[in-house]
Amino acid sequence: MKRGTHISLITGGARSGKSSFVLRAASEIRGQKAFIATAEALDEEMKVRIEKHRGERGPAWDTLEVPVNIAAALSDVKGKYNAIILDCLTLWLSNILLRTEIPKQGAPTIKERISELLHALEQLKKDGGNTEQGTGVFIVSNEVGMGIVPENPLARQFRDLAGTLNQMVAGLADEVYLITAGIPMKIK
Predict the structure, then answer these.
(1) Which of 12, 53, 54, 117 could disulfide-pair with 16, CB 3.0 to 4.6 Å?
(2) What is the span of the domain harbouring residue 69?
(3) Residues 6+ apart with CB under 8 A from 110
């Protein structure tokens, strides 16, 4: 009998230990592993960060670099992997927000991209896992609403969208963790 898909949302502040926690948890799952990375190597410092993270994951992980169309990536990996990490939602949101600031004819809006993501996650849960073991999906996101109100409209829009996105994904998730100072707290 197949087991289903189990979705975990892991959130917290920058450098709180989210990615390390997720990598440890997902590495315990036997079978094929996929890492959907939303980061883009747009400068030298980011290139170094990306390579460091690749090295930490090791060769057991298939890495998909998907800065924008993560809904399609989730559909593509469905049924092929036992563990999937999506790192991270807030960087993805930043990527699409900056690309849609000046709307292009026929390009999806931010709300459409979010709807596509939520639909892809719902399909993962509905369709179940790929093996007897099932599939563990780990989604990393930053908690950005605990600080001061940003001074500019784009930053306020980002903060508001990130908070709403986190709430929507948390609603779909089977469990939610808040990581603070490297300490995971299960909140759902």
Answers:
(1) 12
(2) 16-152+162-186
(3) 93, 96, 97, 100, 161
Residue 82 lies in a domain: yes
Considering the entire predicted model, what is its pTM?
Answer: 0.90
CB atoms near residue 184 (< 10 Å): 19
Give me the number of domains the chain comprises: 1
Residues known to be catalytic: 53
Alpha-carbon gap, residue 55 to 99, rounded angstroms: 29
**157 inside domain:** no
Residues 5-45: pLDDT tens digits? 899 999 999 889 999 999 999 999 999 999 999 988 888 98
Cα distances (angstroms) measured from residue 121 to each of 13, 72, 86, 154, 166:
23, 11, 11, 27, 13
Amino acid at 113: R
177 in a structural domain = yes
Q: What is the CATH number of the domain that holds 44?
A: 3.40.50.300
Residue 98 in any domain: the answer is yes
